[in-house]
Specification:
5 helices; about 40% strand; alpha+beta
Length: about 220
Amino acid sequence: MKKILMTAALAFGLVGGAASAATVGGNFTMDIVNVEYMDSGDSQAKMSNYNTAWSGGFGPALTSTGSYNGLLDFRVGAPQTATYSVREFIKTGSYTSFSGVTATLDAQLSYPNINNGSATTTFFLFTLANFGAGDFTVTHDDGFAIFDDGVRIGGRLGPVGETTTMVSGFNGGELSLLYVATNGNPSIFEVSFAPVPVPASLPLLLGALGGAGFLARRRKKAA
């Protein structure tokens, strides 16, 4: 019996260990807002900024709402003033628009300068209705935010040199990711996810313990 319990514990430890991270992908609802003449405060990764931009509160905006099917693995390079379009940035997947697709996708993704209010800024909001619990690793250059059922759980407000930021504690449910491309290129948003492994290991542990109990009862009867 002791040997069986030790085996069950070992199995739990192996399956319940750290899960490997993988690039996040799926069929997302994706909303895009492209605005010119933005400053550093307007271009921070805040839902309030996104909502203001969408409503035209920062000035005339190009907007599109639709679906994106693919990986959140976006990158365009230097120089800072390169004229990459929104379409070139999201080329790793396929995009179906419900409105405003052509003008928004052909718009310039990002342009300096947030310090004098002449920046071009593009907000991307990706949403999935159901997503499992786990932790995110995000490689980025500009601001981003991750929301769990509408509550911000981590991110970075504004531009930075290429860096990696961890966001832990996603409990499962509606996932929203806000990325803000601004102040010129490169523009980078690469998202990986490591699921919480405990739910996967629990059935194995219970099965092992159930088998241990069954064998113990058989031995007792035989005695």
